[in-house]
Amino acid sequence: MLPPQRILYALSLTLLPSSSSSAFVSGTFSFLRPSPFCITLPRSLSSSSSSISLSHSSTMPYQPKGGHREQKWKEKTKTDNSVTNRLGEWSASGSSGQIDASVQPIQFGRVQVNKGPVQGHKGIWKPKSYGTVSGSTAVEAEVPVDKSKVGFQGNGAGLARPEKSSSGSSKLFKGNLLENFTVDNSTYAQVQVRATFYPKFENEKSDQEIRTRMIEMVSKGLATLEVSLKHSGSLFMYAGNEGGAYAKNSFGNIYTAVGVFVLGRMFRQAWGSEAAKMQAEFNEFLEKNRMCISMELVTAVLGDHGQRPNEDFVVVTAVTELGNGKPKFYSTPEIIAFCRKWRLPTNHIWLFSTRKAVTSLFAAFDALCEEGTATTVCRTLDEVADISIPGSKDHIKEQGEILEGIVARIVSHESSTHMEQVLKNFPPPPMEGAGLDLGPSLREICAANRLDETQQIKALLKGVGPSFCPDHSDWLGGAGDAHSRNADKAVLSKFLQSHPADFSTTKLQEMIRLMREKRFPAAFKCYHNYHKYDSMSSDNLFYKMVIHVHSDSAFRRYQKEMRSKPGLWPLYRGFFVDINLFKASKERAAEIAKTKSTIVDDDGGSGMSGKHGLADEDANLMIKLKFLTYKLRTFLIRNGLSILFKEGPAAYKAYYLRQMKIWGTSAGKQRELIKMLDEWAVYIRRKCGNKQLSSSVYLSEAEPFLEQYAKRSPQNQALIGSAGNLVRAEDFLAIIEGGRDEEGDLEKEFVPSSPSASTGDTIPKAEGLIVFFPGLPGSAKSALCKELLKAPGGFGDDRPAHSLMGDLIKGRYWQKVADERKKKPYSIMLADKNAPNEEVWRQIEDMCHRTGASAVPVVPDSEGTDSNPFSLDALAVFMYRVLQRSNHPGNLDKNSPNAGYVLLMFYHLYEGKSRPEFDGELVERFGSLVKIPLLKSDRNPLPDPVKSTIEEGMNLYKLHTKKHGRLESTKGTYAKEWAKWEKQLRDILFGNAEYLNSVQVPFESAVKEVSEGLSKIAKGEYKTPEYRTPDSGKGKIGAIVFAAISLPITNIKCVLHNLGRKDGPAEAFLKDKNLESKLKKAHVTLAHKRSHGVTAVANYGTFLHKLVPVDITALLFTDKMAAFEACPGSVEGERVISKNEWPHVTLWTAEGVAAKEANLLYNLHLEGKATRIAIDPPATIHGPLEFY
């Protein structure tokens, strides 16, 4: 079988001169989802048609390098800038633009290109059918009706279009239309999805488990691995001028204004004088076909990431058909074809379709993860990939050398074939606007308009021009002025109460109800729809909704719900919908009901579940791999600024040490980073004083510091990666009012500070110990502390133990604990106070770091819920205990009028973490965890009255905090409701006292178990448990330096022993070397990344962990060193070839002689300066091939 070709594609295109019009040369291709993939070109084209020629071996001869190399194709540089041919052989207008009648339509997912247009008209894609990715029969999610009768053009509701209201604008702002809009049996709701990005799938497996599964799938021919660059920017989505421009969780602000400006400028660069026409056509196309394109917006004006880009640009990352049902995402070949048709920027893509390629990829990343930059990463991936498609925006030229990372995901195993066909038929388009004066740049406009955000928005939209952005109402309101777009909160409730007019509305209502019922951390923000205000009437209302997910835990929890409810729509990132509330006549209602009865949910082509015949879990396999050179800037420097300036250098050091532990940073890099970051902390605090450096412009200070630091040594240069050539951002930074951070990564990517406790398996006893309690009132911590202090023998060692009760301390409790720690540094402190959040945990970590102590969290045991470490059963018991006690020092007892509210407040402090996440984070921070037994495992379920009362209190708490924040429950709008609920809580709990008493573990048993756990820790006998957290397995695989075959040391010693017995010179040499005790490990080095390059090391990935036979053929030695001559054998029929000229096993070197000097032994033997004793027959030893 011939080896698979590795192809770097770019194609030359030969054209005859075209007319001045930039219309497309006509032709067709058929892009069909069912396999086999095919592209059909017309049999004949007119004189203005293009001919495609693929550069073959005649122009790119096969040139093997050093042994077996596979054929590679590279993209030719395009030399003819007059080329006007476009994707799909589109027609060129002009007298010669005749169209061949044999031309067939183009199918892209659910969007089809018509047959060739008539003379003088441009080819435009038009919707045909809603087919599936897998090629199954197309099933429409909704049945379209007469578009002339609907509010959302093309939607299935068929509501009547109203007359324009003369007072539409004023009604819209005053909100009286919604107030007077009552929901009854004739009320319907209809949604139109406007923008979505891929769902955020949280892998429950570790990175290593995901890698293993990916390798397995590719090896079996079930899938291909696709890798793309992760550009460092912000998510930007565009659905046309009518559809709207969107950021991750917002619209109508500076983020989207910048995005529209940059995208519009990209059109001008690509299309030149034809840009205005193409911009208008693009808007029309997106709206007509209900599509949205998602991009990474890379710019220097919206705040610093890893490196300020040299240019402002976008890269298309997704193309979505929003249609009448579930959004459908294009495959990468389809994205590239779409982008080349419209001349939009594409990303750099690599495909790995063989086991050797995919194992080499992961090995290459591990070799580069701590030092990789854009140049080294792209070059290495080009060498190991089967297919490489360069992006239209060069990361090195446009953004710089600092590369955030790469994204690897499983795609159809036919992807390589599809990609090859697309690349053959759609060459990279020309840039006709290159060299033209495009007017003021983004940075110039932002610099000239520094008054406020609104001024910058207006200037940017004006700069975009009317052809691309004729309507500014999303930003400036219906009258062109700044406005408040927020709609009444009643929109959501009336939407959920209304009958769904179509299938999409049914599914969205289902999603929102579930998220509200399960209390997911998300908001459903409704806004006025200014595009529709002229159509507003008393029985026809229009709004926009943003589904804003506040925490990644919501995505994880939603995934679990999808597994049990397969019909649920995915929860998308960047999720925007238009809402129409309307009244329907009996006739319309009957028509809607008839339409809905014919609907079948079509999941085909969603690209999100079961795609290409893959199981759901495999279809969503994806892994993000980030580079240390990026992370040290964003995570360690930028995200650590608030800790450094607010909490000081010790807390900052604890923070960055924990980050490095989570990433699995190598010991050598940790030492280098500690030295650099400590110096940075001193430098920036000295320069800025007490005024914190802004995260949005942190590179203004960090870049010069890193540049100077890198110049000191090659080691520092490798650590930093690249620095210098600073782009000054202060003069043109966009004004973001209210401190918004659209991407949420300026402060929120940070993971709180590092554990000061030992990071090993045991907790050392020669230091102080802080025992603290992340729990709720009623968890019996004070009673537990008293019993622990009374226990005979204390904690099993001689350290004194004492307690500090929080309810008796006035002022700052944790500062008091710190003071006590200084007085008694080797004591055991029982911190008798609830420690409910990460802010307190960071204080404890900082205290441990400064006073040389370990900290042990003691928590009540509980199953928890999907979003809280404590179950409702546990909360009920805590409430019951609190309401039983009297004369409590903190006044939280049966006489407290708001005891239930206080318990709910504490309970919600833990919201957002499941029990495994909660336990795992505590163990990651502090290295240990002790649990207080609370509830019996064989208990009966919580009685319904208790459960419903607590849930009622939670709903009331949510209403109260939303309106009043932390205001006491005895005050505010809901004071009466709280008083009623507090009485109800007492009645219900005491009415179920028998149950609540029976389910609790006896206190004596709890004390005994906690005491034993703490004694193990105090004695240094504790073993750290394994917990799976969101960070577990992330980046902990380790950096690779070299590949080697590890040989069992006993076998090596056996060969030495036998050789000494048989050979006199060998025996004489070995006699005084004492290798029996000195020789601890042995290996045959195959390749080293410093000597042989990253690719050479990575290519051994296919043999990783496999046993390799090694023949030991001779012993070579001098008076300074000795080594075995080694010859690696074959694995599964493939020879393992060492990159070293002389493969060997180093056995011994004299004092002061480096082990690498053994490489010279063979040459020394040839020169007569070393002794060689042959081993005949050779001794064969088997050992695994590993990376080190």
TrEMBL record:
One Gene Ontology term of the molecular function aspect: RNA ligase (ATP) activity
Disordered as annotated region, ranges: 47-82
Keyword Signal: yes
Biased composition, class Low complexity, residue ranges: 47-58
Assigned keywords, A-Z: Signal
Biological process according to GO: tRNA splicing, via endonucleolytic cleavage and ligation
InterPro entries given in the database record: tRNA_ligase_1 (IPR038837)
Keyword Membrane on entry: no
Leader peptide range in chain numbering: 1-23
UniProt feature, compositional bias: Basic and acidic residues: 67-79
PANTHER family in the record: TRNA LIGASE 1
Protein name listed in UniProt: tRNA ligase phosphodiesterase domain-containing protein
The species this protein was found in: Rubus argutus
